């Protein structure tokens, strides 16, 4: 049986690229999505067409019941879990803080912070040697915004990723004796559809001048960092925040 990697938000962008690289590295892949069923099915079909194993499960990260159901679906199909990639995340429309509603901020924190906490909880129950598991790895997708602050664009998003960095730090130490390594990647501006969802579709292009390497990154460049953190090559790495941002 191949090792199993669960990637939240695996239908598009960084999650879809991670699913593809995970398959290439020999993992069976479970991915979740919120609404883009066709995109999720396309990722699964591309892996299956090359002889790999993959499933896609609809699960809204804002719903605890959906998250529990997602992990049960992985249990049912694969009967094991080795790596969780907490990737699903959102931005909102560009806004200064004084224009943000409580609903916006709560939605941001629910999807970008509470969701990853609950996914980690479910993964720990299955992977921790304390609970009879074989150990494993958790990789959280943070953002360069966590240390840059997102001023004038989305401080709420940046703060949610700051919480993810602290979560990574604390959980890594908490689980060090449980056979589970916990790390994060902190992407800079990456060319995905997330920018259009925040009303800023040209961000990869317009940001290029401010990125030392002169361009936005692509999803595969983040996925390769995630795969390294999951691999044996990173066996002494826990609590790390790997900046993959073109040098910002
Ligand atoms: P993306 O292209 O917009 O894809 C987002 C993925 O997350 C999709 O699979 C989407 O599912 C899923 N998703 C969104 N909301 C969800 C919810 N409530 N429940 C379940 N799934 C949900 O985004 P991306 O750029 O690949 O971003 C992935 C991660 O990288 C995020 O955590 C983001 O904050 C982080 N990041 C991105 C950048 C960047 O510049 N792109 C930079 C730093 C950090 P559907 O397809 O069903 O909508």
UniProtKB/TrEMBL annotation:
Enzyme class: oxidoreductase
Listed SMART domains: PKS_KR
Residues covered by region (Disordered): 193-213
TM spans (from-to): none
Domain Ketoreductase: 3-192
EC number: 1.1.1.47
Source organism, top-level taxon: Bacteria
Example GO molecular function: glucose 1-dehydrogenase [NAD(P)+] activity
Keywords assigned: Oxidoreductase
Xref: InterPro entries: KR_dom, NAD(P)-bd_dom_sf, Sc_DH/Rdtase_CS, SDR_fam
PANTHER family: OXIDOREDUCTASE, SHORT-CHAIN DEHYDROGENASE/REDUCTASE FAMILY (AFU_ORTHOLOGUE AFUA_5G02870), SHORT-CHAIN DEHYDROGENASE_REDUCTASE FAMILY PROTEIN
Family label: Belongs to the short-chain dehydrogenases/reductases (SDR) family.
UniProt name for this protein: Glucose 1-dehydrogenase
